[in-house]
Amino acid sequence: MNYGRELLKGNTDSLLLCLISRQPTYGYQIVKELQKRSNGYFQFKEGTLYPALHRLERDSLITGKWQILPNGQQRRYYYITEKGQQVLAKRLATWQDFSTAVKAVLQAETT
Amino acid sequence: MSSISHYLNRFKASLHIDQTIRDGVAQELYTHLQEKTQELEEEGLSREEATKIAVQSLGAPELIAEQIYETHAQGSWKEALISACPHFLVALLFTSYYWQNIAYPSIILALTVGIAVYGWHRGKPIWLFPWLGYYLLPVVVSGILLLSLPQNWGWMAALIYIPAALFVFVHIMRQTARRDWLYASLMLAPTLVTFTWFSSLGRGNELLASDWAARLQTNALWIVVSFVGLAAATVAFIRLKQRRHKIISLLIPPIVILFAVVAASGGNICYWSWLLLLFSLSAFAIPLWMQARDYE
């Protein structure tokens, strides 16, 4: 089992909610943002992003709207909902507590 | 055919959900592939190389389709209970002598037709298909009743009725199967359960024994078991996420019904009835067989 991949899988929803909360965005841009912000750390098959987005939309955490660009291309932009913002805030708080606790334990091990 | 079109066709062929949602996701993947290809071309790659890398980076279309299916195919508990309701209502008819009083079956029939028509015109939600199955029942039963009219009238009515009934039946089946063969199985289940029980009422060489009503009442407990089994399978079908699990849930009703019919008759079923019983059960398996073909 790849531990990094499992960690990413467990936190995909929070990462997506966080990116979408900053500005309405679409699938390909999310992939690029994730790779850019993580300095290429997050490697995954890009197609798996779409089931995750649809799961968040089904749970009413985000909402998708089609937009037609001047060149005629269609993009589906995702917006965070109020429920999504609340869930994100809770998850961020939980993550901070968890991260602090893990760091404290690991530092105690190494010192 | 370009590799992008080929990729999207594989994706669509693997995804058995509402066509609007399927086309929407396919459009999202198309936009993604177009943008990635364009970006790679701007970095100096040829069109062919860029497309190949873009397609590879998305991953297997079948895997994306499976994950999207799991997101959209699982109904809520509320939807599961609504879809099991008609089975419970029919089971209720046989818990006592309610089925012999024309008022109760008529109320259930009117309710079923109303809800089926409502659901059909409201985007065919996941809970609709069992109701549609009961909606088709009167279509079949009316055809059988027509045969009891005075001889010439019976045939004349049948000549007009059968093509019209077939049209309705085929139209609904095609629309449902286009979305998903499994929904067609779910929809056919009530008709086949009823048909199977009807077939078990024969005796000797008679298709329908003269004491059929008394025999139906004697078998009431087993009929209730059949419809409750069907309701349980429907709830499981709606709630399960994975397609293969849904298929397994659809195998429950034929097994329960076969067991119930044989137990109720003590194995004493006439030749015609065995034939009808086997026909009903094999007809139930056709949509599942169509699904298995898709997997090949």
Brief synopsis:
The complex is a heterodimer of chains A (111) and B (296). With 111 residues, chain A is α+β, with helices and mostly antiparallel strands. Chain A has helices at residues 3-22, 27-37, 49-58, 82-110; strands at 62-68, 74-80.
Q: How does this model look, in words?
A:
- The complex is a heterodimer of chains A (111) and B (296).
- Chain A is built from four helices and two strands; from the N terminus they run αααββα.
- With 111 residues, chain A is of the alpha+beta class.
- Chain A has a single domain (3-110), classed as Orthogonal Bundle (Arc Repressor Mutant, subunit A), CATH 1.10.10.
- Chain A has a two-stranded antiparallel sheet with strand order 1-2.
- With 296 residues, chain B is an all-alpha fold.
- Chain B has two domains: 3-70, no CATH class; 75-295, no CATH class.
- Chain B is 80% helix and 0% strand.
- Chain B has helices at 3-14, 19-42, 47-58, 61-73, 77-93, 103-120, 128-146, 151-179, 181-199, 212-218, 220-239, 243-250, 252-265, 271-295.
- In chain B, helix 2 packs across helix 3.
- In chain B, 35% of the residues are buried.
- The chains are: A alpha+beta (111), B mainly alpha (296).
- The interface between A and B is medium-sized, with 17 and 22 residues.
